[in-house]
What we know:
Helices cover 32% and strands 23% of the residues. By secondary structure, the chain is an alpha/beta fold. The chain has one domain (2-240): Purple Acid Phosphatase, chain A, domain 2 (4-Layer Sandwich). A 6-stranded mixed sheet has the order 3-2-1-11-12-9. Strands 4-5-6-10-7-8 form a 6-stranded mixed sheet, covered by helices on one side. Strand 2, helix 2 (45-54) and strand 3 form a beta-alpha-beta unit. It is globular, with a radius of gyration of 17 Å. The mean pLDDT is 97.
Amino acid sequence: MRSAVIADIHSNLEAFQAVLRDLEEQGGADEIWCLGDIVGYGPDPRACIQLVRQLQCRCVAGNHDWAAIGKLDTSAFNLEAAAAAQWTAAALQKLDVDFLAGLPLTLQVDDFTLAHGSPRAPIWEYVLSVQSARANFAAFDTRFCLIGHSHSPLLFELDSRNSCREQRLPEQLSLKTDSRFIINCGSVGQPRDGDPRASYAIIDAGQAILWHRRVVYDFRTTQEKILDADLPARLASRLSVGW
Length: 243
Ligand code: ZN
């Protein structure tokens, strides 16, 4: 089975569509796994939700999905994120709200656990250190866990001698291993690792390989839409630099 892993689309339709085109060029996937934050920050929340539904993605909830439907208080958000959450809440219709409200916090598919932030605190936690990764390896039962939330492609490995290390997610990763992995495939719609290209992954379970893909997309159109919608200007400018 081949699966595509997408996370943190953040209402960026141009990035989402470019990823889907790239996925087709790479031979497609049997399933798409979506790790939350479909909405927030960007100008096309409804179109992105519709596309996720149409593609029948297996999907978990992210903090911005909850914020947009009033399930999470935005007082912990920075000003721009909170403004975008309010704007998104006003843009959504009941069908969209019902869909986001129904998303689970985690999902298990074969050897993979899917969560937005972390398996132990799916809505809240950023896994950005070996210390937090180590604690999280105890919080899921499968061999691999796929996460988003930090928008940074990262790999945490717990090997058979119980030693834990961190590295950037390589372009190709063998899953034929005795190790356990927590894998962040980066963000589709708002990359934050200094590379403005959309980020996602394809997993071929038969070959036991994960490919990390980066995809050029037309961020200028997204930027124009953000400014036209009167969303905070910095949410547009950051897309040029991948931050
Ligand atoms: Zn996010």
